[in-house]
Design brief:
two-stranded antiparallel ribbon, single chain, 60% helix, elongated, mainly alpha
Length: 443
């Protein structure tokens, strides 16, 4: 097996082939590790701590590639992380004259954590672009169906009417919440530089009068934030990232599970723009995008829980807590990246079926507006009598299938009461239109 065959996503159709898959691959992590090493040497050169020629040599060797991912993975077992063998290979690649400037003053966790932040930033940029596409697609549908009535459902049953515009505006609002959280955490992700135990001591040996200036220079080189303290056991950046990613997966999951419900054959109020096929049933057009998004939403909380658990990091480098972060963090980035890709396609291609929604408003023969009728009849008959009457007529409607409006019209005590549009579900959507407008004002 070649390095290119590693981790192709055979069992992960949710992220396989997505931009996030490339951004989180073994090759992408190796690139980030090399970028972190090269940037450290450049930052030291910028402060006069190493020769400019050393910075050029390390950067050139890091950019040239030729590092064996499989060999690094196998040799990582010797020290528990891939930085140790990578430093050895990079030092050889740089050559005898400038090799000693590779990784000078740093520890493996400095490079590993900084590389993880680079991978996260690069992946979040892709996620944010897809979240913007998703929000735009949902916004278009919310505006187009601002006043399209449909059944509101609570605990799986018809409740009162709502509009598809309000439902789509709600999906969009969650997506924008996710976007805002991802933007904020992306801007906050920092470099890590602390040396062996977070004191920056080695850098003073190598001539740094103020090692914190080196941290600032390192952050500038990589376009990451400058931390107040080394965070080798202060895992706020990873926890914040976990929270934003888990929230994003759940926000997209809400869209997905609603579409899965509404696209059932017997409901068919929406449909994915292009469904997936079946190996056995030629007629199937499965809502595959929604299915994969829903799967990601179910996995993300457990991955985030592992990262939150790693906040309990003992001493100045924990044995296991730090190591436990690497795979779930990558899995979270991949899952959310794939879900965001699928959500963008889902939102842009979603087909809405207003006729089915209108038909379904009549499934309960008018009972869907019983709340409105209860309030209006209370003013005519009194609250207790109105409740008793509607309860009795509702039982008849269920049993006989006779529209509630007909039964009400036949009641002697209501002969002079004009219920008019009060029995029309399409006329009982409350402030749905105004709420949709309000939600769409958010950019």
């Amino acid at each position: 097996m070649t390095a290119a065959e590693f981790d192709t996503g055979l069992l992960a159709p949710g992220w396989a082939g997505s931009p996030a898959a490339s951004a989180t691959s073994d090759a992408a992590f190796l690139r980030a590790l090399l970028d972190a090493e090269a940037a450290l040497t450049r930052a030291q050169a910028a402060l006069g701590l190493v020769p400019e020629a050393a910075a050029r040599a390390v950067t050139g060797a890091a950019a040239a590639g030729g590092f064996d991912v499989r060999s690094l993975a196998e040799r990582a077992r010797g020290g528990g992380n891939p930085v140790i063998p990578l430093v050895a290979d990079l030092t050889r690649a740089v050559g005898e004259e400038y090799g000693p400037y590779v990784h000078r003053g740093a520890t493996s966790q400095d490079i590993m954590d900084t590389a993880a932040m680079l991978v996260a930033v690069r992946t979040l940029d892709l996620v944010l672009a897809d979240l913007d596409r998703t929000a735009a697609g949902l916004g278009e549908r919310a505006a187009a169906h601002r006043d399209t009535p449909m059944p509101g459902r609570t605990l799986t049953q018809h409740a009162v009417p709502t509009t598809f515009g309000l439902k789509a505006a709600g999906w969009r609002s969650l997506v924008l919440d996710a976007r805002d959280r991802c933007r904020a955490v992306r801007a906050s992700l920092p470099v890590q530089l602390g040396g062996a135990a977070g004191t920056l001591a080695a850098f003073t040996v190598y001539g740094a009068q103020d090692p914190t200036a080196l941290v600032a220079a390192y952050a500038r080189e990589l376009g990451l934030a400058e931390p107040v303290l080394p965070w080798h056991t202060l895992r706020t950046p990873v926890a914040d990232l976990a929270g934003a990613l888990a929230f994003t997966a759940g926000a997209l999951g809400k869209l997905a599970v609603d579409v899965l419900t509404l696209s059932r054959t017997e409901i068919a109020e929406v449909a994915e723009g292009s469904g997936g096929g079946s190996s056995a049933m030629p007629h199937k057009a499965n809502p595959v995008r929604s299915t994969l998004i829903a799967a990601a939403a179910r996995r993300a909380p457990q991955l985030a829980a592992t990262l939150y658990g790693s906040l309990a990091a003992e001493d100045e480098r924990p044995a296991g807590a730090w190591h436990a972060e690497w795979e779930p963090l990558r899995d979270l980035l991949r899952l959310v990246g794939g879900a965001a890709r699928d959500a963008a396609g889902l939102a842009e291609g979603l087909r809405v079926c207003p006729e089915a929604m209108r038909d379904h408003l009549g499934l309960t023969h008018g009972l869907i507006v019983s709340e409105r009728l209860s309030a209006e009849l209370a003013g005519v008959l009194g609250r207790a009598r109105a409740k008793e009457l509607l309860t009795r007529l509702a039982e008849r409607t269920y049993a006989e299938g006779v529209p509630l409006a007909e039964l009400l019209a036949a009641e002697p005590e209501l002969k002079d009461v004009d219920l008019g549009p009060s029995t029309d579900p399409a006329c009982y959507t409350g402030s749905a239109g105004a709420l949709t407008d309000r939600a769409l004002e958010r950019r």
